[in-house]
Amino acid sequence: MRIALIADTHGALDARIAEAVNGVDVLVHAGDVGDGVVAAMASLSERLVIVHGNNDPDGSGWPERETLDLPGGELVVVHGHQWPARTRHRKLREQFPQARAIVCGHSHRRVVDRETDPWVLNPGAAGRTRAYGGPGWIELTVGTRDWQVRASDLEPLKPKRR
Is residue 72's pLDDT more than 70? Predict the structure, then answer.
């Protein structure tokens, strides 16, 4: 099963990421979606999982947390703004010890922390806003026994000429 993890689009999903994730089994967005992104994601996967970020409108209807029952374990999805950066990974692991992996956003910085279980995965920003070093995403390939993570970093887009 192929799962694409993205976050922090803030209204602009990078077209290269949209092309790369097209056809995944599940497309997960870890919050701070922004206007127009849900429509852009709708054709990319039959299953979209979106959680509410601190910059999403209160009426979005997206939950603060989602748990996906997957072969080989649970994937928990939260935005991450609920915990201070300094202790975020520890607090996430304490709150969701049953998970195989936890996906969060908020910092706009890519993290693949597999040092301790559960893993903490932050795909970084998949749009233009604070995409440190360029936009990116994480591909999670899930099997009953083996989960594999592949982070993809893209070159920053050059500013549009006016």
Answer: yes
